[in-house]
Amino acid sequence: MLDCDVVIVGGGLAGCRAALEIKRLNPETQVALVAKTHPIRSHSVAAQGGIAAALKNVDGEDSWEAHAFDTVKGSDYLADQDAVEILTKEAPEVIIDLEHLGVLFSRLPDGKIAQRAFGGHAFRRTCYAADKTGHAILHELVSNLRRFGVTIYDEWYVTRLIYEDGEAKGLVMYRIEDGRLEVMRAKAILFATGGYGRVYNTTSNDYASTGDGLAMAAGAGIPLEDMEFVQFHPTGLYPVGVLISEAVRGEGAYLINSEGRRFMEDYAPSRMELAPRDITSRAITQEIRAGRGVHKDGGAGGPFVYLDLRHLGKETIMSRIPFCWEEAHRLVGVDAVVEPMPVRPTVHYCMGGIPVNTDGRVRRDGETLTEGFFAAGECACVSVHGGNRLGSNSLLECVVYGRRTGRSISAYIQGRNLPELDPEPYLQDTKTRIQTLLDQPGAVRISHLRQAFQDCMTEHCGVFRTEAVMAQGLAQIQDLKSQYSQIFLDDKGDCWNTELIEALELQNIMTVGELILASALQRRESRGSHAREDFPQRDDGEFLRHTLARFEGDKVVIEAMPVVINRFPPQERKY
Ligand SMILES: Cc1cc2nc3c(=O)[nH]c(=O)nc-3n(C[C@H](O)[C@H](O)[C@H](O)COP(=O)(O)OP(=O)(O)OC[C@H]3O[C@@H](n4cnc5c(N)ncnc54)[C@H](O)[C@@H]3O)c2cc1C
What is the DSSP string of 303-368? Predict the structure, then answer.
């Protein structure tokens, strides 16, 4: 058994920022960071558009209160307002700290950090490094991990959280290189495992975004919060689903239907293309449904709309959003300087997650906390995004709550001993699980079952939802789950067995998908990204509350948790 003071699962922005904080506060603390990818390959590296903070470098009237209001309104009033206050108040400080670490933000002519417009934000407050912001930040954070002596276990796959009687004690982890299994025991465990885009068939997320942390927490009996809120980003490049950053609209691009019209004037006349993502994604979906989508031959009735940048001019495109230009050029052969890009909504972000308090401590239920268990970043739900996240608030959450959770872990482990733990049964259990997968004689291909599951989620729990369609989806999921024991692996070895990893990930995808659907079914209202055609209104009387969904045996049990409302009373959400 390996021992350390703190083990962090995840080498994205949240995990790295937490590790850095723990080491800064006490360089003696032994911190291990485990990631199934190399940390630099975490999905954070793909973040493009930027990170929000009321620095007032461009718009002097901005303030943390204005940022907080935009965030709460954007969340459709489901965000916890105490958590939003922390997020927006601490934002300027964490950005300056990143810049001191060496992050190369884009600059204004006077040398200050540049800030651009973003959907749902009333002021220009998104700081950026061209359209490679995540790349710029993650590289600095990862080099600092090395500087501070964090032990990195990269390309180790965590298979299980060891959780006994409300206390997290360790992890079971598998070295992808040679199949070695280890139990890692720690005084505190932090999950920073990112999102679950791969639960759906079209996503902007990387292949590793399979919701592992969420599924491991759920598997241990911990509830997941607000899982029905799945963010569809309006501009996924058609047909691949890869993201075209909101920065492109932030710089002034238009959304155009088959009639050549800027249709957003019908949906959000005051904000147009810079309405929040839930509203813009619904607008695009409605245009496509109404036959005003564009066809590959340029005619009407097709499956996408246009994102038109041509009026921005080559110089702006190449200096501010060069990566987006390159993506469209490389992946679909479109030169955005002279032709519009084909786009449609793509699954992008997980608003819900492992429920935590504002110190990053994981909740055991609506009232009590777990011991030794923390979560931060996209896999956590603190909840600053409620029903819909504003662009550029996620990187910010990773950094603010990564730092904050790092601090709270540093204090938590003072005087705490390593937990009592017998690793043997856990190792044995994982060995058996892996051996069963390798030995089972079934005839189902992992890729087929995964595709069927992703198609089921996309069809039954997409941008628009109804009771009947979701109930069908849930029934179909049970059938697909039962086929898991029939999957067949070609690779029986223990050296770089990525097929085995895919099999383990598929189980996580299924667990997370079921919780999304079950949570979505019980919320009989429309709020944020959760749009019910059978319940089109927001219902604050019944549903201004968080959902907590957990497994009891095979059954999903749903409970409610109150929302913290201490500053902005709920209003109708108009743009
Ligand atoms: C294309 C794209 C562009 C985006 N642009 C922006 C933007 O401009 N602004 C913004 O605010 N947000 C943006 N987002 C969202 C934002 O990037 C993410 O929410 C955020 O980076 C998540 O960071 P994280 O640290 O929580 O997790 P991630 O960066 O996803 O890292 C997860 C880590 O967990 C590890 N891991 C997961 N499971 C396991 C396991 N079983 N065992 C071991 N390790 C595991 C992975 O290896 C990885 O290191 C974007 C997202 C995408 C997909």
Answer: SBEEEE-GGG-HHHHHHHSHHHHHHHHHHH---TTTSPEEEEEEEEEES-BEEB-TT-EEESSSS-
How many distinct helices (H) and strands (E) make up the chain? 15, 22
Per the structure block, which two tokens stand in for 541? 């009387």
| Mean pLDDT across the chain | 97
Nearest atom in ligand 1 to 216's CA: 41
List the structure tokens of 212. 């592992």
Selecting among 124, 198, 277, 389, the annotated active-site residue is 277
- Domains of the chain: which residue ranges? 233-345, 424-562
Label residue 205 by pLDDT band (50, 70, 90): very high
- The whole-number pLDDT of residue 351 equals 98
Structure tokens that stand for 94 in this block? 């964490």
Q: What is the average pLDDT across 45-59?
A: 96
Amino acid at 449: L
Q: Could you write out the DSSP letters of every residue in 256-278?
A: E-TTS--GGGGT-TTTGGGS-HH
Atom of ligand 1 nearest to the CA of 156: 43
Of 394, 399, 404, 511, best ligand 1 pocket probe by most atoms within 8 Å of the beta carbon: 394
pLDDT tens digits, residue range 222-239?
999 999 999 999 999 999
The CA-atom distances, in angstroms, between 48 and each of 391, 394, 400, 476 are 10, 12, 18, 36
Q: Are residues 44 and 395 in contact, defined by beta-carbon separation less than 8 angstroms?
A: yes
Helix 133-147, helix 13-25: angle, nearest 10 = 30
Instruction: Report the amino acid identity of residue 463.
Output: V
- DSSP H or E segment with residue 460: helix 446-460
Helices (H), ranges, 56-116: 64-74, 81-101
**Residue 500: which residues within 8 A CB-CB, separation 6 or more?**
434, 437, 438, 489, 491
pTM check: above 0.90: yes
pLDDT at 87: 98
Architecture (CATH level 2) of domain 233-345: Alpha-Beta Complex (3.90)
Say if ligand 1 is within 6 A of residue 398 CB.
yes
Encoded tokens for 250: 């932030």
Distance CA 116, CA 176 (A): 41
Q: Which pLDDT belongs to residue 389?
A: 97
β-strand partners of 369: 363
Pick the CATH number of 424-562 from 1.20.58.100, 1.10.940.10, 3.30.450.40, 3.90.1150.10: 1.20.58.100
Q: Supply the Cα-derived Rg of the chain in whole angstroms.
A: 23
Encoded tokens for 167: 């206390």
